[in-house]
Amino acid sequence: MKIGILGAGQLARMLALAGYPLGLEFIFLDPAADACAHPLGEHLQGDYDDPRLLATLAERADIVTYEFENVPAQVAEFLTAHTQVFPPANALAVAQDRLLEKNFFQALGIPTPAYAPVDCLPGLRQAMDAIGYPAILKSRTQGYDGKGQSVLATAADLAAAWHKLNGVPAIVEAFVPFTREVSIIAVRNPNGAVAFYPLSENRHRDGILRVAECKVGDRLQAQAESYVGRLLTELDYVGVLALELFEVEGQLIANEFAPRVHNSGHWTIEACQTSQFENHLRAILNLPLGNTEAIAYAAMINFIGGLPACAEVLTIANAHLHLYAKVSRKGRKVAHATALANDFDRFSDCRDELIALAEKTDCS
After folding, report:
1. Over the stretch 309-336, which tens digit does the pLDDT of each residue have?
2. Residue 293 sits in the same domain as residue 338
3. Residue 158: which domain range?
4. 159 shares its domain with 233
5. Which of 109, 170, 197, 287 fits a disulfide with 185 by CB distance 3.0 to 4.6 angstroms?
6. Rounded to the nearest 5°, which phi and psi values hold at 89?
7. Residues 148, 153, 158, 159: is their CA dihedral positive or negative?
8. How far apart are CA 319 and CA 155, in angstroms?
């Protein structure tokens, strides 16, 4: 069985690593010559909408999936006409447009921050009368890791923020005074079987995830499962989906969802009987889903832009290192480490040492 993946970055790499024990082969389509999943399968190098390469991918792959949500939705639609594609193209289309996404949440009764579409600077000024300050202006599409966003503290920020977006369609959202940021990762197969991972408590800086910590037994687990379950059902979803949320006064408010495996779930590789990556493959192949319970305390720490020496990480007790084979570059996720231990004190010592090491080598 050969799995086609649109994208060949670290998420595709980890999918392939999870698939090898299941006897799976992989073929990737990615524009980058040095895509880090390249050694783990066949690499079709070129644009995602290249008709020749898409035809080759559809011919050689039994099933196609994708590792990030900015693959053009029409590409997934084209491939769907020639082979199986999971998650479905409609999920990709909704996740790519922040306005469609917020409207989708609202239609399912999932609360969101106040928001309004914006197409011009006068429209932004008018929208702010209803949204209020502070707020965040975001491009409707092509936004990830904090890109395409500006904070609006006062009316004096509007013109510069709008010009920064170069006039692309946008959405303005009310600032949420959250207690914490969390995410839930869920998986669904074609038969409708669903499994949920424990909540992850996440720490971001400059729009980039730095730390994701597994929270077994979190008081908001059931609420998060209810919300993400509605998404899975409405989209007739197949595969892994991550829903990012804010906690505000003890309740959850939706931020965005990702129709793919997710950075905040990397700790599942060591901490769960079945990782998010293996379960994604099981789901799209319509295999029984694996156990998602956490077996220990766990947290994932990203290394951004720069890498410590391997020995610096591996001398830390209870640390597990994952290198992505990517050239270091400012703001780039180049590796992560997982802190894992059955004893909370040993776990927290490892987590804190890894965080300190990541801060020391950070280049964001």
Report:
1. 999 999 999 999 999 999 888 999 999 9
2. yes
3. 114-174
4. no
5. 197
6. -60, -30
7. negative
8. 47
In degrees, rounded to 5, the angle at the alpha carbon of residue 157 between the alpha carbons of residues 137 and 153 is 75
156 and 185 inside one domain: no
User: Within this chain, do residues 259 and 273 fall inside the same structural domain, yes or no?
Assistant: yes
pTM, entire model: 0.95
Domain's final residue, options 85, 100, 131:
85
